[in-house]
């Protein structure tokens, strides 16, 4: 681990960003060039003290998960992300492997989507980051660990929980789409990858997945029109648009409702109350 190189790189990258670059308000007059340390720590979901010690060439070696979060917070390019890993004493991650890193181009778009639900997914259906409207609509999908980080895994391992937002008549289609998406990831990442491990685990635990996997359907698809059932506001009819990175490894999903529709009003209501239960609001 090259502490000096790591510290100098973090300082320079932090100073090169403005709050508007990462979706933060500028706030009062700033004495610090670029972002503040506490702002980077907030974006990377880590303590300000730990981040400060990295810039001061102190503290323990950061984990690969933490480095992925820092790369996302600092809007690093793939080459910059690889450099960050190497000076921190780790091998650069395989670019075909799912990590907490988010493509900067998708993050810039997400930063500007403040009033409509939007989230960024990996090829394995892991929610890498979501905005506040998406959290209000779908719940927090970024806190899962292990296989459960993948919504594909949760669809088959925890069907009572994961499928409750989908109308019963749409669940068969949604399940087939999940499996087709996983097969596309499996084809690009290979059997020895995270996709391969996820397939092996689902084949072990879910007869339903086995049946759908045998269909050999392959597609990266998201239904253009969705009907979701929120526990508080009920049914919403939403349009879904997907923006993919060039290598198809990540997708930004944006959910919108038709103007002046009941669903649009429900989204506005959710934006006001956030993730609170209406009974407690």
Automatic annotation (TrEMBL):
Segments forming domain HTH cro/C1-type: 33-81
GO molecular function terms attached to this record: DNA binding
InterPro entries: Cro/C1-type_HTH, Lambda_DNA-bd_dom_sf, MLTR_LBD
UniProt cross-references to SMART domains, sorted A to Z: HTH_XRE (SM00530)
This protein's name: Helix-turn-helix domain-containing protein
Coiled coil: none
Signal peptide location: none
Top-level taxon in the UniProt lineage: Bacteria
Gene3D superfamilies cross-referenced by the UniProt entry: 3.30.450.180, lambda repressor-like DNA-binding domains (1.10.260.40)
